[in-house]
Amino acid sequence: MDCTDPSILSGFNWMLCYLTTGKHMALYVSVGTVLLLLSITAPVALAFGFGGASAARSRFLPLSWLGKGYIAIVRGVPDIAFFLFFVIALDQAFEWLRHQVKCPDWDEPIRQGNDFVVCAAAKLPLGTSPQWMHETYGFFLAVLTFSIVFGAFAANVLYGAMKAVPRAQIETAEAYGMSRRQTFWRILVPQMWVYALPGLSNLWMVLIKATPLLFLLGIEDIVYWARELGGAKTARFTDYPHGDWRMWYFLALLIFYLSFTKVSEVVLDRIMARLTKGQATAAGEAQRKAAV
Amino acid sequence: MKKLIIATAALAVSAGAVFAEGHAKTVRLGTEGAYPPYNFLNDAGEVDGFERVLGDELCKRAELTCEWVTNDWDSIIPNLVSGNYDAIIAGMSITAERDEVIDFTSNYTQPDPSAYLALDGASVDFEGGVIAAQAGTIQASHIASSGATLVEFATPDETIAAVRNGEADAVLADKAYLSPIAEESADVAIVGEDVLLGGGIGMGIRESDTELKEKFSAAIDSMKADGSLNALIEEWLPGSATF
Question: Where is each ABC transmembrane type-1 domain found (chain A) (predicted)?
Fold first, then answer.
């Protein structure tokens, strides 16, 4: 396919060339970015949540305060404020740490008016590193921010789920002579998931829909590219002039997000059925009767 | 959670050590990439336009290695002062308000006329109508002080769309941005008289970075002196005043 002069092409061929420009490739790559972000963030946020919930129910008071404080603070602060503030703050915190280690004899102040100035060796990534390293670094800052935010919500869900496990189950474990640790890992944790899953599945859906916030964090996600590509283009600056096509791009996004949430629902329903098996819940009982 | 943060920080500290060997400084140029002809992304997804050509030439004259970065207009100044890039070259007019937060090099365009774009044949009330502009621009502050109702948008493209769908009576933007749009589409046209705003466009630099500011200013002055800047302005911004 020869795309060197699109003005002589028409119809299908024009479309084929148009949809394979470098810019469109960036759009396709950004779909991967979003999926990658979700696949890393979900387990990390779950781990944060598990840690937060375990800490919150700890009998060691300072640890419990830490867990409860984490949940309360993140849940209380508006997400957007958190996303805008946190990424710049995290970045500056890392650079400040590196600055202390690498440039101990630096004599200028780090805050100069509005400017945040650390020595060149402390920049993260270094000013000399290639653009992809800056992008990867930004991506991991985003993963960390998303994980901290969604981890707090997950912690609250898991904290509730741990409390929802019937007391009789724990008592039985104690009667068998299990230690607190054994009870936690062998009885409580395997049984809590069925109570946690409805809440966690909500979180997953919200997380999918929160990915456009990525652009706030400086990552060029699918919504950014859809907006950029869909905007009207004049012939002076592109080989593929067109009017305002944002509607079509956003329609494609709509389909993407809808089908993604649909697939998630199907998978989550299956996990739920699996977790319900043998549980002392109404659904577990119904499942048992149906199998008889 | 705490452990993870400390571990990440430790990893970040040690990872950097590998790359910390002496390098010539790379200067990162931040732009918006959505404001043709000043700066836009071409079909290949690269930064292109008047400021791309200008920036590359300035870096050559200042003997700097430069790299292009795109950033949302709304957060373009906060990201500069926090050090994510070293200079803004994004059609940013020099104003006293911005000068309090960042520094500017010498201007590389004359104060450029701004113009109103409206639906073809529409009569616009510039003092009492609804006028669109990109948020955080000199045009937006001009409308706000003129008595008209200001509607702001995050990107230049959305301001044009607002005029087309009737949300705004007209849009006020740099004339060099509006002219190609007016020329190529039958439904909109430039209306009214041009407005002169701002002190020309310059590069935005952190206030603490006087060395870089001097370098770029010297390069801009040398391009003014040998006429190459005028040639660029005539090529990319036809109709704009030269030096």
Answer: 31-268
